[in-house]
Design brief:
The protein is mostly helical and about 100 residues long. It has five helices and two strands. It has helices spanning about 15-20, 25-40, 45-50, 55-70, 90-100; strands spanning about 5, 45.
């Protein structure tokens, strides 16, 4: 028999449901759905993954992060974006403008 996956009670059921409805994107909505399932009906992670349409690894990661850091772990900026840039977008355009005007 598999271990039952539970989450810490950082937020109430109603608060998690509200976060699920107001999620910024699909990825965040999936994470809140995993938390909601583990909060309302604790089951093995395999069953939660099948029910939410995520992988087993995702369920384990989301539950672990939520138990450690609370709702801040779910509300992350996402996967994409300019995270490794040295300059802001405007500063980079200003820096490259002289080089682009030479052509």
């Amino acid at each position: 028999m598999a271990r039952v996956t539970r989450v810490a009670a950082h937020l109430s059921e109603a608060q998690v449901k509200g976060k699920l409805k107001s999620a910024a994107n699909f990825r965040q909505q999936q994470k809140w759905l995993v938390v909601y399932n583990a909060l309302v009906d604790p089951r093995p992670a395999e069953v939660i993954a099948k029910h939410t349409g995520t992988s087993l690894r995702t369920v384990h990661q989301v539950v672990s992060d939520y138990n450690r850091f609370g709702s801040a772990a779910i509300e992350t900026p996402g996967k994409g974006g300019r995270r490794r840039s040295y300059l802001s977008w405007e500063a980079e355009i200003a820096f490259l403008a002289p080089l682009l005007n030479k052509q």
